[in-house]
Amino acid sequence: MTTQSATVTAEEYSTNAPYQRPWYWYDWANSAFVTTTATVLFGPYLTSIATEAACPGLAEGADCTTDLNVLGLPIDPGSLHPYTVGLSTFVGALLLIFVGGIADRTKRPARLMGAFAGVGAVAASLMFFVEGTNWQLGVLLLMIASICLGASLVVYDAILVRICHPDDRDKVSSRGWALGYLGGGLLLAVNFLMLSNEDTFGGTGQAVRISMLMAGLWWGLFSLIPVLGMWQMRGVERPVVAAKAGVVGGTFRQLKDTFKHLLGLPQTLLFLVAYMFFNDGIQTVIGQSSLYGTAELGFSETTMLTLFLMVQFVAFGGALIFGQVARRLGAWRTVLWGIGMWVLVIISAFFVPEKALGALFALGIGIGLVMGGTQALSRSMYSQLVPRDREAEFFSLYQALERGTSWFGAVIFGVVHQITDSYRPAILALVVFFVLGGVLLAKVDMPRGIREAGNEVPAVV
Hints:
Elements: H1 2-16, H2 20-54, E1 68-70, E2 73-75, H3 80-103, H4 109-126, H5 135-163, H6 169-196, H7 204-229, H8 249-263, H9 266-296, H10 301-329, H11 331-351, H12 357-385, H13 391-404, H14 407-420, H15 423-428, H16 431-442, H17 446-452
Antiparallel strand pairs: 1-2
């Protein structure tokens, strides 16, 4: 039985190996939106639109004391973007679980991924029309784009299991992440030059809108490479559970079985809990680094944008380096070392003197090196722990945890700042997430978990 299964698996990997090259390109495609729009530009831009709606003609630097009326609730304009991100994260986390069930029952997964990417890219491109006081359109488009991004990534991550042998997943996943950082960094560099010459494009607002349009078009156009390149790739056979219930009808019954199955895979569940903690730390560092640099260390927004650009390109190399190290030490040990490096980075950030430019950029190099590597290898590690024919369902849980719990760190960061009135102890408090995540990950028995999931144990784990 084991020999037969291994032979079939080897044949499938050989058949699907040519899909690796187009698969890489979806990281390149969606990272432009993640970097340029979601991370850098849209938050401040939506806030300015909301502020103009609440306080028309407000003098620059003055505080807006009027709230927006959102479904009868008073919302401060400065809180609109965080609340929108939080709502889209919550809604997306719920929907992604259903997306995974549908994806595992789809015969052509790349086409489903392309559908989600297409809708998301259209929403991202339409952000060009968010101007004046039309914050409602901005909120709607951000939610659509964010939810579609998460849905497309569920399918994309699940395809990884189908296109490469377990021994090659660390390498393939790392290359995808690296290409994503490179693509996102290149477009952000172009957008940075545009914003530096804003008068050429009709002012700051117009330059921002054109940049967001470029990010949406980048996402949509480059998604054609993986979608068309994997167009003929077949999905899994229909699962046994609710096989005759149809795509949507059988999904609900399938989900119940998925959670039941997860409870029977203790190592997979333990990995997910560990990932929830250390990924929350990573996301909070990424999300709050600009605020820490400007408000606590006294650097300008231009300096922080330059730093972010540098981090993108360093992360490109970091993902590749971690992938090579994992081939020798295994992904499990490499990620544990990466978590230890994250702790050192945060402690170093606590001691960076105000306006010490050299120390800031040294810190950025450290963040870039560990950021791409830990995220890429976490994806490939988890792919070893998911049962065959349920990849998308289990990766929907992975994405839901990544998005649905990523506000814990931001809340801790905000609470500590409110208590101490300083961002230094707030950034230091994030060490707890990495320590907890590292301790839990150290307890994961990867070979046992891989065997429990019914998968082949790689030569180096």
